[in-house]
Amino acid sequence: MNDEQVIENAGHYYRNDNKQIYLPQHVNCPNEIYDLMLECWNRTECERPSFREIQMFLQRKNMGYNPKDEKMNQIKVPIC
Question: Where is the signal peptide, in residue numbers (predicted)?
Fold first, then answer.
């Protein structure tokens, strides 16, 4: 896309008195993550989280996470 096409395409996300239209929350997306996404999409730059704030949020969200635990939960044992 050229510059004009990018601007035109981005303009489709703002309608109805400059209210931003957001992507919908995916069914598997936790509310806390979607809320962070909405904050990042804020049209006003000073109201968006900093990279440090995003990093801290994700670190807190990830505390205690062990991918091995998730794999164990996905294993289905046949019941006879």
Answer: none
Greatest mean pLDDT range, 5-14, 41-50, 68-77: 41-50
Number of H helices and E strands in the chain, helices first, is 4, 2
Assigned domain for 79 exists: no
Q: Is the pTM of this model over 0.85?
A: no
Task: State CA 55 to chain mean position distance.
Answer: 13
Alpha-helical regions (H) of the chain: 3-11, 31-40, 51-62, 67-74
Mean pLDDT estimate for the chain: 79
Nearest 10 degrees: CA dihedral of 56, 58, 63, 65?
Answer: -160
User: What is the total count of domains within the chain?
Assistant: 1
